[in-house]
Specification:
Helices cover 35% and strands 31% of the residues. By secondary structure, it is α+β, with helices and mostly antiparallel strands. Strand 3 and strand 4 form a beta hairpin.
């Protein structure tokens, strides 16, 4: 009988913690609200990062921003309830698959997940694919 009471009280307390987490917004996924938000995240995470032009994914789950001085790229991706950033060169990208107005990016860093990036149209996707892969012919 004592075991049943302990199990029941534990279950109620666990459900209470889950409810408290949901009430406090614990399951609200993060988003990249704007390029300014992404640039601020990159400046915070990567000291000395100077933002140039960039693009925000249509679903507000990722942003790519070119660095002014080096031409590298800052990538900010919403993962769970936080924003994760990476500094990328073309050598950090294993593959870029273009599918109409979207790019699927695969990275050498196995700790960083592949990223699906949907653009406003296929021309913008092609332009950013060329930039990321260093393909000068398509970048014009």
């Amino acid at each position: 009988m004592t075991t049943a009471i302990i199990i029941a009280v534990s279950a109620v307390l666990i459900l209470g913690l889950i409810g408290l987490n949901a009430w406090m917004g614990g399951w609200t996924p993060s988003t990249v609200d704007s390029l300014e938000t992404a640039a601020a995240q990159l400046r915070q995470d990567l000291l000395g990062f100077e933002a140039d032009d960039g693009v925000l994914a249509r679903d507000n789950r990722a942003a790519l921003i070119r660095e002014k001085t080096t031409g590298r790229f800052g990538l900010v991706v919403a993962q769970g309830d936080i924003l994760v950033s990476r500094l990328l060169t073309s050598g950090d990208i294993v593959g870029v698959t273009e599918n109409e107005n979207a790019l699927d990016l695969r990275f050498r860093d196995f700790t960083f997940p592949n990223t699906h990036f949907e653009f406003e149209n296929s021309d913008v996707a092609a332009q950013w694919r060329a930039r990321l892969t260093g393909d000068v012919e398509h970048h014009a």
